[in-house]
Amino acid sequence: DLSTVERCLLHMDCSLMDFHSILSLLKKHSLFTGLFHVYTSGLDDFVSPLEVLMEALFDAVDADLANELSRDCLGGTKAELYGYKALLYLQYCFEGKSFPKGDPLQDGDRLQTLRPELFDLLLQKAYSNQRGHRGSSYPPRGIRSLSYPYMRALAMVDAKLLFGCISNVFDDQDARFLPSTELLADSWQVEIGTDTSFDVERIDNHSNDDKTFLPSKQSIVGCLSSIIMKDSLIDPSSQIGSRKLMTLLSIKSKHAYLDFLATVLAKGVVRTPRYIGEVFVRLTNKKGSSEDEILTLLHALPRGSFELDEILFTVERVEMMRAALFLHQEAVRANLSSEITARKAQHHLDKCVDCFLMDRDAQFRLGVFDFIRKTSSTGDVSGVLRDVILKRLAELIDLDPNQAALLVAEVISYDIGTILYRLKGLKSGSIEFKLLQAVISSNSNDDSVLQLKSNLTKEHHHSYLELLIKFRPDQVYQYLQTHQNNYRLDEALKQCQDCEIADASAYLLERLGDISGSLKLMLESLDERLRNFKLALQSNFGSMRSRTRNVSVYIQQNESLVKEVNRIKQILSAVLDLCERNKNDHLTLDNESGPLLWFHVLDKLVGTKPQLGVSLDSKDNVALGISSVLSEILLMTMQRMITNVPLIDLMKKITKDYSGNALGEFREMLVSMLTTYRSELGICSNAVDVMLHDIRQLSHKRKSTKVKGIFVHDGASLSTARATLVEISPADGKVLSPVFENAHGLSSFGTSQTGVDQSALLQRRLNGRRTRLHHRCNNKRRRGGNNLSLVTVSEFSVAPFEEGRVVAGNLSDAQHIGGL
Q1: Is 816 helix (H, G, I), strand (E, B) or coil?
Q2: What are residue 97's DSSP bridge partners?
Q3: Which residue stretches of 286-341 are H helix?
Q4: How far apart are CA 718 and CA 741, in angstroms?
Q5: What angle (nearest 5°) sits at the alpha carbon of residue 80, between those of residues 75 and 84?
Q6: Reported confidence tier of residue 703, pLDDT bands at 50, 70, 90
Q7: Mean pLDDT, residues 514-532
Q8: Sign of the CA dihedral 552, 557, 561, 567?
Q9: What angle do CA 70, 76, 77 make, to 5 degrees?
Q10: Which of 213, 317, 473, 502 sits a CA distance of 20 to 30 A from 144?
């Protein structure tokens, strides 16, 4: 078995072989794996075995093209076998591995010369029979007769794999390439106006004695371009193979080449070809391609290296809006330099807005506002941009009304009335409503927004009120409360009454002075909403045969029931607001003197169950649901009443008027109130205890401070006192008595006339002090030993003090002992 012999050969020492005999045997039986091993391991020759394999590949390809006319791909067992073996060998060699074992090359520097040797063979433009071809006496035929036969044959087998091997070499940081010095005349350009009068024959024959340099990347890509893009892999005039097979192979190789070219162009390693449009067409049509790849390529290409309109058409056709946005922005910058092209710039600006609004990502769509602000800061485009914003304002408002209102305030200098006139009626008035709501309800402190808001007239507010009633009737009451001076009461009341908005109508009636009418209207609306809630409960619980275990939880999880409960709370909140605003008016529903308005509301809630026809002791789901909601709104009412109604009056009302009831609705509230009261009482009691404790501590500390003694010495030690300071009064020239200080820090101050004997004066003062101290020693309140005293500042003074004079180092007299 030849395959077994070949595998055994891979484990033998090639240096001990007869190379002539073994190579002849391997070539004869087409054992190319063993041939690679012997050549590379024994002779360090990586090119010759590839040449031998390529000769076999040429023959196999020619045979397939000539015989397999009905096939739609390059089939041939030998062609596939030889082609993929050659590609695998190239991949191993380019990565610095031995074939077929995959071990690293023993000579680490060999890779630097190996790659140029292999590329020299692959980039050979014409087939040469000087390398040992059997039919050397005959001219080349078949694929050998075409340009770049080695690269072309491998591309016909698997162009994607071939370009992948080349791309890996391009990405290797250790690979050394010659600089690109020339361009192919028919395919490549650097920028507009480049001289392209180069000969197609001159790819890059840069001579260099250093064999570690690879051909330039530009020349390698140019070679591939001439094979794939110009000749379509197989020249139709060569009459090789069927037209269908050749077309299919050409399309596959072209797609692989365009993918490879897009990669190298994005990395900036080669220059832009003239057929760059085909690269974008391939990227947009390729399965699995992303818009990020196109954006990366656009950022890498020189701005003048592609036809903008052509690329725009390509990316917009497949709705790649971010790539189109990039191109439109480039077009805007290119057309701002001339007044003639201002209209074209406006067109591209409009398309930029389109690209944002048509994007699938909601967050990206909001970026249109930042784009407009950034663009408006350019003086050359501000006027053009203003027209674009006015044209697309409705779409921008629909996207984000608040951001759109900010744009109107900052960028558009038109009057707000003009803008609202242009928006009137769009989408049944919803666009105008969104803009007005964004302006009126805005909390922005921006000067432009505040100015825009101040320009709104009462007519604008009435238009907004009309739209608010149409689109957001639940917000009318809140608007009327917060904008009392921006509408006319009579007209607003008529609008609200015509549309039957109870809480808003009641509020306006209250402002007109009809408090009882306002309360009646809201209580009627509350009754209606409670009835609707009962109907909703019946429709939800009607299909249930058994009683629900927890009705409250069921209501909270049901969206329709939660909506009805919120409507009840909303009208009740408006009723309680009315009562709170008129809490000092003791009125009945007939405007006569009577109990507080709060009690009318309380009576209405307590009588809700009988009014709805629900038995007080019923345990069905509907009754339990009504009881649950009723307890909740009663608690809400009581919490508001506690802060506005005296607790005594409230308790009298409950215990007197509802004494015959079981007080089931009030039980939870009363328990809660009593619990709260008990907690507050405990807090206050503890606070009083803490205060009394602090008072006692302060009193003891003050008394202890008062009775604290001062160490006193006898007169002999005091005689050593010395004067440390003499002051002269600037007013009358009197000499102030010096400060006498002894070794223990005792000091005294005084005033004397010039010439007075200070020693005698000091002795008299000290004698007087000793007398007072002896007197206090006999007092029963004395504390401490013989050397301790209860001397205060007044007793310590031996001379009168000036008013406001501060004595340092002594305690002041205790005052108000035992009091606070």
Answers
A1: coil
A2: 104
A3: 291-300, 308-317, 321-335
A4: 9
A5: 150
A6: confident
A7: 84
A8: positive
A9: 150
A10: 213
